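Researcher: Here's the sequence for the chain we discussed earlier.
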Amino acid sequence: MDKKRRWILCIYLSILGMTAASAQITIEQITTSIDGNTRRAWLLNELQIHEGKEFESQQKLEHFFNARAIDLDKRRLFREFNWTVTWSSPTKAQISIEILDSFTFLPRPIISYSSNLGLTLGANLVYLNAYGSLMDQALWGYWSPSEYRVGTRLSNVVAGPFRLNLIVDQFDFLTRYGDPTGEIPVQYRSTLTHVSLRSSIPLAPGSPWEFYLEPQVNWRYNYRNYENESGLNRQQVAHPGFSFGIIGGFEWDRLHWQGNQRNGWHLELNNENDFYIQSGGQDIVLDFEVLGFLPVTPWLELSGRIASFYAPSGLRTDAGDRLRGVVDYMTYGTLGVYTTFQTAFRVLDIDRWGELQLRPFVDVGYVSSPEWSHGPESWEYCVGASAIIFIDILPSLALNVDFGWDFKRNRSETIIGTAHFF
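Model: Thanks. This is the structure I predict for it:
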């Protein structure tokens, strides 16, 4: 081979190598088999894929698609949700999705009880995967001796890379500030109108990290039955008039359901700022939380939580909300640290019907307040157990009964409802 031909061959091979190195991975075909109301167009919009979409490598395509599919699966909208990625050639991907919808229109009567609110009666109309769009709609109204409330929510609205949630709420409620002895030195009733819009976006395609912003507007009015026998002044505990606020934070989520067990981790760090127009005051609260779940066997799960808050301006109220045993309003403050450890045992499993789990727990907290500062009075110790009933035909619904004992105040807290404590 003469020198000229060798040069032509080298140039050709170089061009071929550069073309192969820069070849894009393309989704050639997406096959969907849907038994139910979920619409293919909304499904692909939720997963952010379409035929012809390109990726830099096979690994990036699989990572992106699997992350989106896992996030959708965690919402528990389907009785079955399976997906596969196969390759017709090194640069052509074929995606197959199979879905069996579950019943997602849930007109739930609200009949719950908690030591915080008392007996609560009302209705909650929840339409998950509304009209097959994978968006969720809710309308609720309820009454309790401490609070009555009406509101609506539109959530999981996908707008490009953003996910939007809109809430409009109206409620009248009793605000209380408890203390380490179990007394309630501050209490009053007021009415609140609340509107908020949350926008969230992953930090990168397929990333478990998400950044969110939630601007909100509140109008507090109709203050009445005001009592204050504490050392706090009225401006510290009551904020009439309009307020503007914003919540911003980061969330890392690799927590998903395996049957009726959870597996993985969830971490969240946020900052809430509220500015009160009439009083000129401001509340700033920094909050941190990490959750972990580990299935050990099909009948045993270990889980725990570490959380904290810091309020450099204002007070965090209802600071007993992370302690089963301490009624929410019984403690408040500027600094709090919490830890929880619990085990979940499957004690009964009825095929095609559901199962019963029992979860003994220990909750410990430390809440510092201007009223009692640092010291022994800041510590909180609780033990108890939860019973959870899962229903196979309604994977997004479970009945929870939580009972905890507050050793400091020698009293109990009971919570009966359809929401997991965490």
